Amino acid sequence: MMRLMPTMVRCNRTVQSIISTTLSILATASFLGLGEAIASPFLLSATAAELEDIQERGFLIVAVKDNVRPLGFRTDQGELTGFEIDIARQLAIELFGTPDALMLRPVNNRDRLSVLLDEEVDMVIAQLNRTDARSRLVDFSTPYYLDGVGFITQDSRIQSFPDLADSTIAVLNNSTTIAVVRSLLPDVNLIGADSYQDALGILESGEANVFASDATILAGWSQEYPNYRVLTSLISADALAIAMPRGLQYEDLRQTINTAIERWHQDGWLQERETHWGLP
Question: What is the pTM of this model?
């Protein structure tokens, strides 16, 4: 279990129509098997819906990640899997009694909110943490996981946070991680990386001996590259939550989602899934 450094913890239309999905799209989704269908603008034309409309439609439309192990990624067979995919499927069970009553819409980071604001999906479960700016645009559920900035290394000399003082740390360029690291390690040497693959190359070349990023990202990194090890201290806290449309007409949907998440916390389902996916 990750430790949070206590001084740094931060938690950080009216709808006139029901759904514009055509009969041909529904037939296509049925043929594909909704649980494994991948939505695209060519396959799906939909609007963000109230709970009653979703139930009448018969399936959920959820935006997810497909390239962030272990939250949402593809198997060698191309199937979507991961911790957040499990959450989406569990919500389908809550509403329809089957994980197959689900259409998954892979999105990149910059489109996570726009697909919801453009009414293309019912909700977003895609490594989103609640911020003041985002909360002015969408509503967020009860958090389902506490993420935060952590560190990964293969240097045996680095065992805990104090050992980082003399390290060279790779960070993604323009990421919020930079400010978080600087706030606690103002004199540490930072090297910018343009991508996770670039960061790996920097570590492998010896230019840096530590990489700082979200703990969920680092968990996937250590699974893919087991010679790397994640330190047990987080230096920030970011609660991951489900993004949903704002508005009183969505209150039943929000309450249903929040009740489910709270129950999953209490009965241990979320903890079991975190352990299964190797999340810290």
Answer: 0.80
- Give the residue carrying structure tokens 């969408």: 138
Minimal CA–CA distance to 279: which of 238, 223, 237? 223
Report how far residue 242's alpha carbon sits from residue 141's, in angstroms, rounded to the nearest whole number: 5
**For 179-188, which contacts have Cβ atoms below 8 Å and span 24 or more sequence positions?**
180/8, 180/149, 180/212, 180/235, 180/236, 181/149, 181/212, 181/235, 183/8, 184/5, 184/8, 184/235, 188/164
pLDDT digits (tens, 9 = 90+) for 208-254: 999 999 999 999 999 999 999 999 889 999 999 999 999 999 999 99
Return the structure tokens found at 267.
């009965």
Integer Cα distance of 160 and 232 in angstroms: 7
Sorted by sequence, the CB contacts under 8 Å of residue 74 that are 6+ apart come out as 66, 67, 80, 81
Nearest-angstrom CA–CA distance, 199 and 204:
9
Contacts for 51-56: CB closer than 8 Å, 24+ residues apart: 51/250, 51/252, 51/253, 51/256, 52/252, 53/15, 53/18, 53/19, 54/95, 54/122, 54/253, 55/95, 55/96, 56/18, 56/19
